């Protein structure tokens, strides 16, 4: 399962590759991948003509800030954008993205396809199909809609994560150190691999 370092690597790759990528067409190959909105038509219509403006990460969640194109003019110098909420992605166990600048037939594990005006494709593939996507329109809080996102603990490299914080959260727990490390409400982004490696390094 991708953990914080892998998800951060994906975020950086997407941000570098998807420069000025405006979603013109969306193809949903597996409806269960879309967690919100409930109506898949709302998801498609909501993100069409949206510029993927900026990629962020919170724990294991990828968060793309969207800007809606309000102009019918395709001239890049005359485009007009407004805030269009966020596209949130959780890769779960086997989810990943590919970028295709040549049209190819999707594999059987392709779940979502995003195309720009030049038919470049951002393809989401997920063998186990546990990954999910949410489009949260402007004015709504992603933390209120996505339960796991709203309950995340501090990032491992944030100022809030320090020895005092760890001492406080561990002192009143009656379970193993590993289960505490895996609890996303306590520390965001750590999974089985990095919990094991951290405990091994700590002896």
What's this, in brief?
This protein is α+β, with helices and mostly antiparallel strands and 203 residues long. Helix content is 28%, strand content 30%.
Structure description:
This protein is an alpha+beta fold. Strands 1-4-5-6-10-3 form a six-stranded mixed beta sheet. A four-stranded antiparallel beta sheet has the order 2-8-9-7, covered by helices on one side. Strand 8 and strand 9 form a beta hairpin. The chain starts with a helix and ends with a helix. The relative contact order is 0.18.
Keywords:
4-stranded antiparallel sheet, 6-stranded mixed sheet, 203 residues
SSE-based structural type: alpha+beta
Largest sheet, in brief, is: 6 strands, mixed
DSSP helical segment count: 7
Task: List the secondary-structure elements in sequence, H or E.
Answer: HEEEHEEEEEEEHHHHH
What portion of the residues fall into strands of 2 or more residues? 25-35%
Distance between the termini: 24 Å
Radius of gyration over C-alpha positions, nearest whole angstrom:
19 Å
Q: Give start-end ranges of low-pLDDT stretches.
A: none
Q: Share of helix among residues?
A: 25-40%
Order of strands, main sheet, comes to: 1-4-5-6-10-3
Number of distinct beta strands: 10
The outline comes out as elongated
Compile the SSE list and pairings.
Elements: H1 4-17, E1 22-23, E2 25-28, E3 34-36, H2 40-47, E4 50-58, E5 61-69, E6 81-90, E7 95-100, E8 110-115, E9 121-126, E10 132-136, H3 142-145, H4 147-150, H5 163-171, H6 177-182, H7 192-202
Parallel strand pairs: 3-10
Antiparallel strand pairs: 1-4, 2-8, 4-5, 5-6, 6-10, 7-9, 8-9
């Amino acid at each position: 399962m991708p953990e914080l370092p892998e998800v951060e690597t994906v975020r950086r790759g997407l941000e570098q590759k998807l420069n000025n990528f405006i979603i013109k067409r969306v193809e949903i190959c597996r409806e269960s991948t879309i967690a919100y909105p409930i109506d898949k038509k709302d998801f498609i219509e909501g993100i069409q003509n949206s510029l993927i403006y900026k990629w962020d990460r919170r724990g294991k969640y990828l968060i793309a800030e969207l800007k809606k194109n309000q102009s019918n003019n395709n001239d890049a110098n005359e485009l007009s954008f407004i805030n269009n909420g966020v596209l949130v992605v959780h890769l779960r166990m086997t989810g990943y993205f590919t970028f295709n600048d040549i049209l190819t037939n999707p594999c059987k594990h392709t779940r979502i396809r995003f195309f720009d005006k030049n038919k470049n494709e951002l393809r989401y593939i997920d063998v186990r199909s546990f990954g999910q996507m949410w489009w949260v329109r402007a004015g709504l809080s992603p933390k209120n809609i996505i339960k796991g996102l709203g309950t995340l603990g501090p990032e491992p490299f944030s100022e809030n994560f320090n020895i005092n914080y760890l001492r406080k959260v561990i002192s009143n727990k009656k379970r193993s150190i590993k289960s505490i490390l895996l609890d996303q409400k306590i520390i965001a982004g750590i999974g089985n691999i990095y919990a094991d490696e951290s405990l091994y390094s700590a002896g």
